[in-house]
Each structure stands twice: as structure tokens, then as C-alpha cells.
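User: For a reading group we're discussing how well predicted structures match intuition. Take Small-conductance mechanosensitive channel. Before you show the prediction, I'll give you the sequence so everyone sees exactly what went in.
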Amino acid sequence: MDGLKAQLEELWPVVMDVGLNVLWALLALLVTWIAAKIVARGIRRLGEKGIDETLIPVLETLAVWGTYVIGGLVVLDIFGANTTSLVALLGAAGIAVGLALKDTLQCIAAGFVLLGLRPFRVGETIQFGSIIGTVRKIGLFTTELDTPDGLRISAPNDKVWGETLTNFTRNASRRIEIIASIAYGDDIETGMNVLRKLVAEEPRILTEPEPAYAVRALADSSVNLHLRAWTTTDDYWDVYWSLMKKLKPALEAEGLSIPFPQRELHIINQAEKQPREKVAHE
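Assistant: Thanks. Here is the predicted 3D structure of Small-conductance mechanosensitive channel, as C-alpha cells, for the group to look at:
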């Protein structure tokens, strides 16, 4: 018993030391977790103070993970680990991981390029390749969009950056183009007046630049009249649909017709043709 008691007395300082280190480590982890929440909340509040909303998700991710890394180093230091050597080891491991995950690193690099050059922002409608959608989030790895039919798309940043980008909402105004087809027997000037009347009755069409009217083409079955008018980007689709709805009744009210494709066929009767050729030969 005396020997066991002596061993316990020798181990007790070690147990106390380890126990205190565990308690300090748990406290450090708790402080790190609270600090990460505070940092994330603070980054989100920056968006309410005018900071570009596009930057918020990336800044939040970097700040939170940076806080966790610092907390992890503190915990290791509590247990007496050589953090300097550990950082060097992590650096070497990072190179190896980077070579293995080069596609992922390309996504991260493309994300920083998108955030730096700002070809689009959160809330803008873009197209890259065959995908059209409204940007909801630009993250370190992916860009999230909502398509017009209500689907959520998560596209790798390098795929987004690697395509030609079309931004539909960056500019304040957009041009509407309407094609009105009338028959060859209809009066062209009457058709032009129909287009001018539609524009005059639509207050959302801008006066600058001025609307333009022209004969676009003399097609196979119709004369195609062309209207170009400008409206604000927010009103673009409402104005376009409104003009298209009013176009047909307006043309018909002026006695103009929208012709169907037509084709003339000349049929030669072979039965009648052969006797004539025979008589001519005789």
C-alpha cells in the first residue's frame, strides 16, 4: 500500500498538469468557437453597412477558418507541441495536397478572380455557356445561381470564369427588337405607323435613344418591318411581352395581314407533254 501510495503521489502532479492542460484546451476551443461566431456575425453586418454583398460569403469563410486555425495552434501550444515545426510540416503537406487537388485550387483561384474583376454581382442575371440564372452567392469553390424556372445551380468557379459571360442586368437600359411581318400587298408606311403608335402608347419606352423603324428584309412570303426601342432593364420583359400582345390586333385593325409562308409549284403533266413531242417529231 505504501508503494502504491508513493506511485500515486508521483503521478498526481502529472495528472493535474494534464488535466489543467485539457481544461485550458477545452476553454481555448470554446473561446475559438465563440470568436468564430462573433467574427461571422461581424462580417455579415458589413453587408448592412454598404459593403458589396458579393464579398460577404468569401470574407466570412476566410475569417471563420482563420479563427479556427489560430485556435487549433493555441491548443497545440498548450500541450507543448512545437508549433513552428508543425507550421512547416503543414506547409509541406499543403504543397502535396495542392498538387493532388489542383482542380479545386483552380476553382479557388477563379473565385478570387471573379471577386476581383466583378464581371457580375449577387442579384444580377448572367449567362455562361448554356446556363442562365440570377447570382445568389459567389463562394470559394462554386457560384450559386437560380434559373428562371426555379432551379438552384452550383457551378464550379473555373467553369464560370472559363466561359464567355453575358450580364443581362449590369447596364441600366436594354434594347427591344420587334419584327412585324406584313404581306407584299400591304402598305409599308401603314405598317410603320402601327409600330409608331404602339411605341407612343407605351410610356415605359425611353425617348433616348430614339426608337428606330426600318424595313428589315423582303422575305420569301412577307415584308419584315423592324422596330428597335430602348427601355430600362427592369422593364424589359414586361414591355416586350406587352408590345407582342398588342402587335397582331394593331396590324389587323389597319387592314394589314400577317402572311403564312407560301410557295408556288408548277406541275407539268407528262401525259399531255408526250403526244405533243411525238407529233413534233413526225
